[in-house]
Amino acid sequence: MPETSVNERLGRVDLFSSLSRRDLDRIARSGRTVDHEPDKEIVTEGRDGVAFHLVLDGSADVEIGGQHRRRLGTDDYFGEISLLDGKPRTATVRAGSDGLRTFAITSWDFHSLLTEKPQIAQELLVTLCARIRDAEAPTG
């Protein structure tokens, strides 16, 4: 079975799912693949964030306030909030015991892309508004 391309994987991320193939290609060209050693702390809660990460291979553990919250695997992602708002990280993410490979795009490369292609920003706003509406919707 052929390996799934980064742009195809980006298209599965809710934040980017409404973007055109061309826009996904631009995002994919703006980032790079990063290998993380086993147990390496990739992002640290409360520290500045510089990149969005899409998990390509391996696993990572998410901690908030020192408590394990979840395990991330292939096609999960982290860092999207700090990528967009530039605020400190809301969680610590550490590579799993077998290491981790991610596609990463830095905030400065991403913001440059948004300046060149403002319609990407508009699509992201629509997706974020949908997230807010879902979070505020009554349950039950």
Describe this structure in words.
This protein has 140 residues and is of the alpha+beta class. The chain contains 5 helices and 6 strands. α1 (6-12) packs across α2 and α4 crosses α5. The protein has helices at residues 6-12, 21-30, 80-85, 107-116, 118-136; strands at 32-36, 41-43, 51-64, 67-72, 77-78, 92-106. Strands 1, 2, 3, 4, 5 and 6 form a 6-stranded antiparallel sheet that branches. A hairpin with a 2-residue loop joins β3 and β4. The protein has one domain: Jelly Rolls. The protein is 37% helix and 32% strand.
Keywords:
140 residues; alpha+beta; Jelly Rolls; 37% helix
Domain tally = 1
Instruction: Specify the number of helices.
Output: 5
- For the record, the CATH class is Mainly Beta
CATH architecture, please? Sandwich
CATH superfamily membership = Jelly Rolls
- Helical fraction equals 25-40%
What quaternary form is this? single chain
End-to-end separation: 42 Å
Element string (H = helix, E = strand): HHEEEEEHEHH
Mean pLDDT: 88
Strand content is: 25-35%
- Low-pLDDT residue intervals, each spanning 5 or more residues: none
Give me the CATH fold name.
Answer: Jelly Rolls
Number of strands: 6
Main beta sheet: 6 strands, antiparallel
- Structural class by secondary-structure content: alpha+beta
| CA-based shape | globular
C-alpha Rg (nearest Å):
15 Å
